[in-house]
Write a structure and sequence with these properties.
heterodimer; A: mainly alpha; 2 domains; 5 helices; about 80% helix; B: mainly alpha; 7 helices; about 0% strand; globular
């Protein structure tokens, strides 16, 4: 675990931020897939702190990437609302659940959904 | 419509639980249920993530879990990467982008399984007391 404010720690933050940004822009995701495990491995974060801090960083990352995509004319605002509004309700449920349970079962269920969707997406 | 709402809700729950944006579900949801192409789906997913991340951050901040300095730094340091990622996405075909995205989903799925199955052996507090 790198000490607070050390050059080594700053470099790690630069690397994580840059990789998360590339992932976000390239795939249309927040970048949490990169941030959460690296914050735990490289910065010594505890899991819940890592997920919370990741969400806060994603506010900026997704906003930048969405603005950049907007310049290409790819953003569909109505569809973003149709997915995003129920998702706001979902994130309230998710953060509430996170304080109360081990995410194990849900994480495995989510992994299964991801694998099924990946197959569906490729075969389409 | 129902499918899109269900995907949104599920993506939000995952975002809160795992600290991600939910895009890994939003993108396939936008393609499969709302008929967007891969480029539109990715761009639209990014916009949908913003309110989710804001609300999730406010909740997590109340629980005292957000490290604000690092979050701000990570966010600001991502700008160049995000711009490069968006430019790259728009430079490659939807077909290639879609297959790469499917590979990302498989990667995330394995990462989740790994993280979930790890605790029993690696976290001391989870070991049974003697």
């Amino acid at each position: 675990m790198a000490a607070e404010g050390s050059p080594n720690r700053t470099l790690k933050l630069v690397a994580i931020g840059t990789m998360a940004g590339v992932f976000s822009g390239l795939f249309g995701v927040g970048g949490g897939t990169v941030i959460v495990p690296l914050a735990i491995l490289w910065l010594g974060y505890e899991e819940r702190q890592a997920t919370a801090t990741s969400l806060a960083a994603i506010v900026f990352i997704a906003a930048f990437a969405a603005a950049a995509q907007g310049l290409y004319g790819n953003v569909n605002v109505a569809d973003a609302l149709e997915i995003g509004l129920p998702a706001v309700l979902g994130v309230l449920i998710g953060t509430w659940l996170q304080q109360r349970l081990q995410a194990g079962v849900i994480a495995l269920l989510f992994a299964a959904v991801l694998l099924a969707s990946a197959v569906e997406l490729v075969l389409r | 419509m129902i499918g899109a709402i269900a995907v949104g809700l599920a993506g939000g729950i995952i975002a809160g639980l795992l600290g991600v944006g939910g895009g890994v579900l939003f993108v396939p949801g936008l393609v499969l249920f709302l008929g967007l192409d891969q480029h539109q789906a990715e761009a639209t997913s990014l916009l949908a993530i913003v309110p989710v991340a804001i609300v999730g951050t406010i909740r997590q901040n109340k629980y005292g879990n957000v490290r604000r300095d690092d979050a701000l730094l990570l966010g600001l340091l991502s700008v160049a990467g995000a711009a490069a990622g968006v430019a790259l996405a728009n430079a490659i075909s939807g077909r290639v982008l879609r297959d790469a995205f499917a590979a990302l989903m498989v990667l995330v799925a394995f990462q989740l399984v790994h993280r979930t199955l790890r605790p029993a052996t690696e976290r001391p507090q989870d070991r049974p007391r003697p």
